[in-house]
Amino acid sequence: MNISRQESLLKRPGPPVGFGFTVALAILILFGVSLYAIGFTPARMLEVPGGVARVLSFFWPADMAYGWDRVLPAIVESIQIAWIGTIIAAILSLPLALFGARTLFPRLARGVKLISATARAFPEILLAIYFVPIVGLGAFAGALAIGISSVGMLTKLGAEVVDSLDFGTVEAVEAAGGSRIQALRWAVLPAVLPEIIAHWLFRFELNIRASAVLGVVGAGGVGGVLLNTLRYRHFDKAAAVLILTILVVLAIDTISGEIRRKIIRG
Amino acid sequence: MNVPARPPRNWMLLAGVTGLLVAMTVWSAYGIGFSLTEILCNIAGGTRLITESWPPDFGFLPRLAEPMLETVFIAVIGTVVGGILAIPVAVLAARNITPNKLTWFADRNFMNILRTLPDLFWAMLFATAVGFGPVAGALALTVFTVAVISKLWSESLESIDMGLPETIRAVGGTWFQMIQFGAIPQAVQHYVSYALYAFELNIRASVVLGLVGAGGIGMILETQRANFEYERVTMIILAVLVAVLIIEEISESIRKRLA
Question: Do B258 and B192 touch, CB atoms closer than 8 A?
Fold first, then answer.
């Protein structure tokens, strides 16, 4: 072995330059192009903190009287939209999740996967755009949009829970002469339900945030109130919207998270 | 044959929970005006809408290229800036490596409040503060990205092996050296995958930012929707779905290769 080969063996291996470096470079270039394309010049950047600070200074003091009268009912409506949407999604997704389990129904599962992938592709606000002309402006359209778009994720997560199940009990029911459906009812459902319910609750938390923005396209909830207060430059009222939304969402997240932990622990 | 006794059920609890759930559902359904008759009566309206929004107006497609690109640009800026800002936020919020309890507590609450507000709320706020357009969208996604990445990554940082960071401190390394050489290298792969995940979320979000005037393809969507040009609305939504799927495919393959 010659010296140079030995040296190269002793040398500490550097970080692998290759794919990671290429990606980093590509991101940097893309970032530069993006800044340029949307007109984010340095002068513009310096204006941003000032602009934000100026608008924020108008937010105080918050108009809490408006908050209690108008904002709270709108937030309650958002919660109701999220709840009904989650219920719709739970009812539709439970059978889909069971039939979407690859281990139980290999052939059906492929079709179910397609349905759930399609449902997941649509953000709820785009669905709401279609539901508003069908059932009219308001919370009902929002609840339908949330329900349909939640089906995809709940089906996927539910099917994964079923797939991860130990199938001893299913085989036991079938060995004792039970049908596939009876096996579902007595062996699968009791085992997967706690985890699936925890997923429903988690989706409910996500849906609260989603329903808060649906008002932008006229589908009810607190989003429309915020849009209007900002549009008419009623910043003190907008502040009330933000404060109440933050408090309510934090409270619901905490409660729901606590329940989820209890359910999972059993 | 001896059958083991059924475990006793807590009927009171079961009845209470069921009652609560049913009450909540009825109250909500009443509150939002849920009615099956309304759905059935409006089926006609629904079919009319479908005939109006199909087939999509393909002639409109060329006009979508520019705003679609703007949407991607907004998502890129939001992900890069937000991804960088998320690093200190996540480090300070990780219980095992944060410098002191007070910083941890303040940062944790800051993170929770960021996460509470949905992306469109940030977009509305920034559109008001810096004017309508893509800059507002990029700022909104920056905040959104910080919220997503810092939450996920602080959890990864909390689960690192503390042996190396403690060694660095023991041999006299500063807190920064401990973070730089002890903590971050252990969790850098998670960071990359969360950043790509945030990018996918941002692409999805930047599509709708325009609904409140924060730039991108959503702005066209909003004008066509307001004019009830549903053939064009369908065209836009189809284009968006295809673009989102392609970008997610790319991001997925990068994530797999880096992992």
Answer: yes
